[in-house]
Amino acid sequence: MDILGLSFGYHDAAACLVRDGVVLAAAQEERFSRVKHDPSFPIQAARFCLRAGGDRHVDLVAFYEKPLLKLDRVLETFLCVAPRGLPTFVRALPGWLAERLRVDALLERHLGWRGPVVFCSHHEAHAASAFFPSPFEEAAVVTLDGVGEWDTTTVGRGEGSAVTSLWAIRFPHSLGLLYSAFTQFLGFRVNSGEYKVMGLAPYGEPRFRDLILSELLDLREDGSFRLHVDRFEYLAGETTVGERFAQLFGCRPRAPEGPIEPIHMDIARSIQEVTEEAVLRVVRHAGRLTGLRNLCLAGGVALNCVANGRILREGPFERVWVQPAASDAGGAVGAALLAWHRHLGRPRTPPRPDGMRQALLGPDLPDDEAVEALSRYGLSGRRLDPEALHDEVARLLAEGRVVGVARGPMEFGPRALGNRSILADPRRPDMQRRVNLKVKFRESFRPFAPAVLAERAPDWFALDRESPYMLFTAAVAPARMRDLSPEDASRTGLARLEVIRSEIPAVTHVDGSARVQTVSRDEHPDFHALLCAFERETGCPVLLNTSLNLRGEPICCTAADACRTFLRSDMDALVIGSYLVFRPDRVPDPLPPARDPFLAARPRLARRLYNAWMRLARALGRFHTALLLSLIFLALVTPLSLARRLLRRDPLARRPDPGLESYWVRPESGRGDGGKMY
Q1: Which tens digits make up the pLDDT trace of 212-226?
Q2: Which of 194, 408, 574, 588 has the maximum number of C-beta atoms within 10 A of its C-beta?
Q3: What is the enclosing helix (H) or strand (E) of 576?
Q4: What is the pLDDT of residue 620?
């Protein structure tokens, strides 16, 4: 039986195909559309999954949210903040009416599907994506993100073929939204720049930690919490933080491309430490509540690998498994598996080593596609057998070359794990700066991850277990660290980048940590063989591994994506399929455009007229819709909001209350039988 799981409408839209309880294929829409964090209906991702399944009949479609329950929260929020929020109301409602409440219609329009659709709640999908692919028979399950329908954090348990949420924190109180507020304040994009905050944190000092805990977050010993919502602006939706937030730190929000000053580093360090402490308290509560020794994690906050590393070292659990696509993309996996086990009542056998197959669930890259792309971009490559290819690439890396890799199935989730990667020698002190500035064109402070042979990992890192998905940080092994001179030890801020801290400085962060990917011979044989070749060449079983993309772009999917990225960057060589390609002396300018058969089929004049007419029609439609919605908001929503405030009936005004022992509540698992939109 085939089940198609879908997630879309907010960010990281994705599709997943589950066959008889096994994840067969999964991909994010952004990889096909080339729009980073694309939230739109995952047409191309779904079509890929269906092709990967042999275009067999799909028996069921599962969606990762309950749209009516989420709309209930959206409308409730507008009722609480009106007359503020008018621009957001006008922008958001058309999308709800046209798409998010019409999942059935979208399925029929884009995929020709007219069969049954099962809806599960957002955090149920996260919990299912965490537990069902895990190798555990039973485990505590924790989900943490921005917000689903109403829940933002849940604690539950998975056992056999069932996953149950026990306690929750509800909107507007959210660790994900708290971290996103600081992401925006520090000049980075929400839902995209949280990694930058995490990477910036070790450069600063946590001097605002106590301020955050006293003025922004009431964190209890059991991990429950409430935000001081009056300090934030996200309820109105126009921005996340405003003047009251900025006053706490005595500085203006950083401009997106502005200089990074010491106060920005200190703020990043402070919110990172607060988040780590909150997450630790939540998982400790989950341990006490369930009495179990295994933990499963999902939700966007579960991608905070520094917090995950502290859970390994300081948490109460013996084993921890994190969904590699922990954000909304993984909701497609969770929805499909939940439909299989709960809706259809099918049993579960814990998969080994897990059910995500090293996250190599995306489109393959065959040699014929590579040859076509090379020809199109004027590149010539040399075809090599696998062993010769590994030896040649290892030699290039040892010489200090930067090599892109695009071969085999694409990774699902935010991490490149060797199949859509940029690789470099981690022993070279200048390599971190070079790859950041000249290859990826991004901020110089951002750290890179080491990929290491699983059997050699304990020799290089303080890690006693495998970490195949690059989701845990660990300290570089003391034997690999170098003693610092007094001058180096006294450096502060970004000057710490110049310090050589270990034998592998390009992947050692300024605090001596690394986000480790262990590579197993059995699970990832091709990448393992390359690491073995590099170890034979250099004596080092570690490579710098970062995703094959440029700043602001999704990870490459196709051979054409890889060629364009290669030519636009300062990479020295590219492995594409079985071919090794070197940088040409002259790069075409401009590069050949991406193919667009729909537009190419139309004569140029007709295409221009069509586009002009569609722009005019959309503008007129938006004007009339905006006018009508503005009238509704001002004439109906605003008076109701003011009346409720006068009567002190504001359900979102759940401010910190010293009289409450805990803020945990029963989770909002949906209304009805669990398979409807509400």
Answers
A1: 999 999 999 999 999
A2: 574
A3: strand 573-576
A4: 59
DSSP state of 485: P
* Phi, psi of 238, rounded to the nearest 5 degrees: -75, -35
Task: Label residue 569 left, alpha or beta by phi (over 0 means left) and psi (-120 to 50 means alpha).
Answer: beta
Q: For the chain, how far is it from start to end, CA to CA, in angstroms?
A: 26
- Cα 348 to Cα 74, 137, 162, 317, 589, distances in angstroms: 36, 9, 9, 23, 54
pLDDT value of residue 493:
87
Percent of the chain with pLDDT over 90: 72
Residue 597 is predicted with a pLDDT of 40
Cα dihedral 521, 527, 530, 534 in deg (nearest 10): -90
What does the alpha-carbon distance between residue 365 and residue 367 come to, in Å, rounded to a whole number?
7
Q: Which of 125, 47, 123 is nearest to 343 (CA)?
A: 125
| Residue 155 near residue 95 (C-beta atoms within 8 A) | no
In this structure, what token pair is assigned to residue 484? 């610092």
Contact 195, 189 (CB under 8 A): no
Which tokens belong to 396? 């290039």
Band (pLDDT 50/70/90 cuts) for residue 598 is: very low
d(CA 220, CA 226): 9
360-to-62, 318, 365, 400, 411 alpha-carbon distances in Å: 22, 26, 12, 28, 5
Query: What distance in Å separates the CA atoms of residue 397 and residue 423, rounded to the nearest whole number?
Result: 8
Q: Residue 368 and residue 390: Cα distance in Å, rounded?
A: 20
Q: What is the C-alpha separation between 236 and 652, in angstroms, rounded?
A: 12
Whole-angstrom CA distances from 148 to 173, 300, 451, 663 are: 12, 11, 33, 18
Counting beta carbons within 10 angstroms of the beta carbon of residue 505, is it exposed (0 to 12), middle (13 to 18) or buried (19 or more)? Answer: buried
pLDDT above 80: residue 50: yes
Query: What is the DSSP code string of 506-573?
Result: GG--TTSEEEEEEE-TTT-HHHHHHHHHHHHHHS--EEEEEES--TTSPPP-SHHHHHHHHHHS--SE
User: 17 - beta bridge partners?
Assistant: 4, 25
Closest by CA to 344, choosing from 18, 76, 10, is: 18
Q: How confident is the model at residue 517 (pLDDT cuts 50, 70, 90)?
A: very high
How far, in Å, CA of 234 to CA of 249, rounded?
19
Closest to 546 in 3D by CA, of 646, 403, 655: 403
CB atoms within 10 A of CB 650: 14
Residue 295's DSSP bridge partners are 140, 320
Look-up of token digits 């939109």: 677
